[in-house]
């Protein structure tokens, strides 16, 4: 009965795939698309997230904080915290971790995480908060997360080599963990996030097979093409983020956006001829390849508008993206 | 809970009272199942948490009674234990009452064979759904199968709470929990039982729809076993390897198996074949819900409607 994020329904593999796609939206934060989170909301989330990471650091299981943050996001979207009292955020964070511990059947409990300095709530208070969270989440605690879809999407790739599958899965998992930090991804379905993470991973690890993967995922009837494109663009940006330090020294110029444009367009033509798609799909593929550039620009605009404090994020990103284009010997070059 | 107006008590479920109620805003009829949450020192008990969330997920199937929402009522002031209301869709009758109308109603007569076929198919669909999600029902019986007469729909109820809320031997009204649908391995004290226990119950329910009477109406665990043995023959090690080492196995009188066709004369050969596969002694040999869906008994059924 333990909750396994890769298999929340405890089911025999393919049996449950249609139901997973059917009900995944019940397990998403209910963010109205138009409503951007406020700076206050963002700071609450940031604070609660870092508390959750701290509280779960002893358990050595990255899925624990992931599940806790999933509860947190869904709770905050249903019942935004409006008070500035610091204990409210602490209580929310600790209750989310308690619930996740119970769902994962770890055998650990509140007393194991409350030893930390600064966390002293009595059981009754935590219990009330747990019930409040359960109510807001409608007791849907077997969260369907991107991890629930990874194996399904990988099976579409028809890999023959287990180590390759392992590598792809490991990288996609890494990207999904990282992606949870980015609030912009909350609007995407877990399956779309999984598909995008796999695309990013395969783009990095197996650039030659990438067009095939791309095609396999797009032709899956459960996947909404437009959402996939949008999510994948964000995901690429997030996936690159970790390579920041590597590229930091390599470049310093802030002009390469145009170079990038050109590179993306030309590479899109290669993609098309390689995969030998029909006219119709090739225009789609071209749109997919060009879209990142257009979309990123839009995002920059929104970002500056909505997250005034996050401008700092922009510079390093431009640097990283430029990296692979300049440094030919880099193994991660996008189109080799 | 102010959202709902309680209309009447409709039953005593295995785990507590069930009320028929109306959503004051929408007028929708619902079934409210009241459960006491046994809080322990660690807040909301993990078992309740896992079971209710599992129920939330399983109830997405068309063949499982839909859990509409979960409401928690803090009753600390009165009893010290918080209450949990599970709000289900309301379905007006159950299979027991439905069969009774064909037995004792103004115009008694057999259930139409096409209805038996359709209900059994829907039951197998629901059980297959539970099993594919790793969940055993453990207490399938006609009272737990809700029937929408107008639409000809059958749905499984009272699901999955087996672990969160300990299974009582007697229900709230001190009515003894029925043994009629209990699999022989459970009656013989096997601790490692699996999906076969539900399939045995499905077989008993299938026969009951065709006969309008329970197949094995025992009134104690011992009597229940004798009912089964008299009809199906006393099980042997050859038929069911390991049976004589089960915890509650004794030396029983030796009975030869009876002809099932005589016990369930309303069933034609395909139906009898399916029934005998559901009532295999060795749980490992018993047909699975998924395989049952492909049995020739359902060949004449229009499966596209499900």
TrEMBL record, chain A:
<dbReference type="GO" id="GO:0051301">
    <property type="term" value="P:cell division"/>
</dbReference>
<dbReference type="InterPro" id="IPR004367">
    <property type="entry name" value="Cyclin_C-dom"/>
</dbReference>
<keyword id="KW-0195">Cyclin</keyword>
<dbReference type="InterPro" id="IPR039361">
    <property type="entry name" value="Cyclin"/>
</dbReference>
<protein>
    <recommendedName>
        <fullName>B-like cyclin</fullName>
    </recommendedName>
</protein>
<feature type="domain" description="Cyclin-like">
    <location>
        <begin position="50"/>
        <end position="135"/>
    </location>
</feature>
<feature type="domain" description="Cyclin C-terminal">
    <location>
        <begin position="144"/>
        <end position="273"/>
    </location>
</feature>
<dbReference type="InterPro" id="IPR006671">
    <property type="entry name" value="Cyclin_N"/>
</dbReference>
<dbReference type="InterPro" id="IPR036915">
    <property type="entry name" value="Cyclin-like_sf"/>
</dbReference>
<keyword id="KW-0131">Cell cycle</keyword>
<dbReference type="InterPro" id="IPR013763">
    <property type="entry name" value="Cyclin-like_dom"/>
</dbReference>
<keyword id="KW-0132">Cell division</keyword>
<comment type="similarity">
    <text>Belongs to the cyclin family. Cyclin D subfamily.</text>
</comment>
<dbReference type="Pfam" id="PF00134">
    <property type="entry name" value="Cyclin_N"/>
</dbReference>
<dbReference type="Pfam" id="PF02984">
    <property type="entry name" value="Cyclin_C"/>
</dbReference>
From TrEMBL, chain B:
<feature type="domain" description="Protein kinase">
    <location>
        <begin position="4"/>
        <end position="298"/>
    </location>
</feature>
<dbReference type="GO" id="GO:0004693">
    <property type="term" value="F:cyclin-dependent protein serine/threonine kinase activity"/>
</dbReference>
<dbReference type="GO" id="GO:0007165">
    <property type="term" value="P:signal transduction"/>
</dbReference>
<keyword id="KW-0723">Serine/threonine-protein kinase</keyword>
<keyword id="KW-0808">Transferase</keyword>
<comment type="similarity">
    <text>Belongs to the protein kinase superfamily. CMGC Ser/Thr protein kinase family. CDC2/CDKX subfamily.</text>
</comment>
<dbReference type="GO" id="GO:0008353">
    <property type="term" value="F:RNA polymerase II CTD heptapeptide repeat kinase activity"/>
</dbReference>
<dbReference type="GO" id="GO:0000082">
    <property type="term" value="P:G1/S transition of mitotic cell cycle"/>
</dbReference>
<keyword id="KW-0498">Mitosis</keyword>
<keyword id="KW-0132">Cell division</keyword>
<dbReference type="GO" id="GO:0030332">
    <property type="term" value="F:cyclin binding"/>
</dbReference>
<keyword id="KW-0067">ATP-binding</keyword>
<dbReference type="InterPro" id="IPR050108">
    <property type="entry name" value="CDK"/>
</dbReference>
<dbReference type="GO" id="GO:0010389">
    <property type="term" value="P:regulation of G2/M transition of mitotic cell cycle"/>
</dbReference>
<comment type="function">
    <text>Plays a key role in the control of the eukaryotic cell cycle.</text>
</comment>
<dbReference type="GO" id="GO:0005524">
    <property type="term" value="F:ATP binding"/>
</dbReference>
<dbReference type="InterPro" id="IPR000719">
    <property type="entry name" value="Prot_kinase_dom"/>
</dbReference>
<keyword id="KW-0597">Phosphoprotein</keyword>
<dbReference type="Pfam" id="PF00069">
    <property type="entry name" value="Pkinase"/>
</dbReference>
<keyword id="KW-0418">Kinase</keyword>
<dbReference type="InterPro" id="IPR017441">
    <property type="entry name" value="Protein_kinase_ATP_BS"/>
</dbReference>
<dbReference type="GO" id="GO:0005737">
    <property type="term" value="C:cytoplasm"/>
</dbReference>
């Amino acid at each position: 009965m333990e909750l396994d994020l890769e298999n929340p329904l405890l089911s025999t593999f393919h049996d449950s795939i249609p139901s997973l796609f059917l009900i995944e939206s019940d397990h998403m934060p209910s963010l109205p698309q138009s409503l951007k989170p406020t700076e206050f909301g963002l700071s609450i989330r940031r604070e609660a997230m870092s508390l959750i990471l701290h509280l779960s650091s002893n358990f050595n299981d990255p899925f624990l904080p992931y599940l806790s943050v999933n509860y947190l996001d869904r709770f905050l979207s249903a019942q935004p915290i409006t008070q500035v009292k610091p204990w409210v955020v602490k209580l929310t964070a600790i209750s989310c971790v308690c619930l996740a511990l119970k769902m994962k059947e770890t055998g650990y409990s509140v007393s194991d995480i409350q030893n930390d300095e600064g966390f002293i709530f009595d059981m009754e208070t935590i219990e009330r908060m747990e019930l409040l969270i359960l109510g807001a989440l409608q007791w849907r605690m077997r969260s369907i997360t991107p991890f629930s879809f990874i194996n399904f999407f990988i099976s579409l790739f028809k890999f023959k080599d287990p180590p390759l599958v392992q590598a792809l899965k490991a990288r996609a998992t890494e990207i999904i963990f990282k992606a949870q930090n980015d609030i912009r991804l909350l609007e995407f379905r877990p399956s779309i996030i999984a598909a995008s993470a796999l695309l990013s991973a395969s783009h990095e690890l197996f650039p030659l097979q990438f067009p095939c993967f791309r095609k396999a995922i797009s032709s899956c009837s459960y996947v909404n093409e437009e959402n996939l494109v949008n999510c994948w663009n964000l995901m690429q940006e997030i996936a690159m983020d970790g390579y920041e330090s590597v590229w930091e020294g390599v470049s310093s110029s802030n002009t390469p956006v145009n170079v990038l444009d050109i590179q993306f367009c030309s590479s899109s033509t290669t993609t098309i001829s390689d995969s030998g798609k029909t006219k119709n799909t090739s225009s789609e593929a071209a749109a997919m390849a060009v879209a990142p550039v257009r979309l990123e620009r839009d995002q920059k605009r929104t970002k500056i508008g909505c997250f005034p404090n996050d401008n700092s994020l922009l510079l390093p990103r431009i640097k990283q993206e430029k990296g692979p284009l300049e440094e030919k010997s880099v193994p991660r070059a996008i189109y080799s | 809970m102010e959202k709902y107006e309680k209309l009447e008590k409709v039953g005593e479920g295995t785990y507590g009272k069930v009320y028929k109620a109306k959503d004051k805003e929408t007028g929708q009829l619902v079934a409210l199942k009241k459960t006491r949450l046994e809080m322990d020192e660690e807040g909301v008990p993990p078992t309740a948490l896992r079971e209710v969330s599992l129920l939330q997920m399983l109830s997405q199937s068309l063949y499982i009674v839909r859990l509409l929402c979960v409401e928690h009522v803090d009753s600390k002031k009165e009893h010290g234990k918080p209450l949990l209301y599970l709000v289900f869709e309301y379905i007006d009758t159950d299979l027991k009452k439905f069969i009774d109308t064909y037995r004792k109603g103004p115009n008694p007569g057999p259930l139409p064979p096409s209805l038996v076929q359709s209900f059994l198919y829907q039951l197998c669909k629901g059980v297959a759904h539970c099993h594919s999600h790793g969940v055993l029902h453990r207490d399938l019986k006609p009272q737990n199968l809700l029937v929408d007469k107008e639409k000809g729909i059958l749905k499984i109820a009272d699901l999955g709470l087996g672990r969160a809320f300990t299974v009582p031997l007697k229900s709230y009204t001190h009515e003894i929990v029925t043994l009629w649908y209990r699999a022989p391995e459970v009656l013989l004290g096997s601790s490692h039982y699996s999906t076969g226990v539900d399939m045995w119950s499905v077989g008993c329910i299938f026969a009951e729809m065709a006969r309008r009477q329970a197949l094995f109406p025992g009134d104690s665990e011992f009597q229940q076993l004798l009912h089964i043995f008299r009809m199906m023959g006393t099980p042997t090690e050859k038929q069911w390897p390991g049976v004589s080492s089960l915890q509650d196995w004794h030396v029983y009188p030796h009975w030869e198996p009876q002809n099932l066709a005589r016990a369930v004369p309303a069933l034609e050969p395909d139906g009898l074949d399916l029934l005998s596969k559901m009532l295999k002694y060795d749980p490992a040999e018993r047909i699975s819900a998924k395989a049952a869906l492909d049995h020739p008994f359902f060949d004449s059924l229009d499966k596209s409607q499900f």
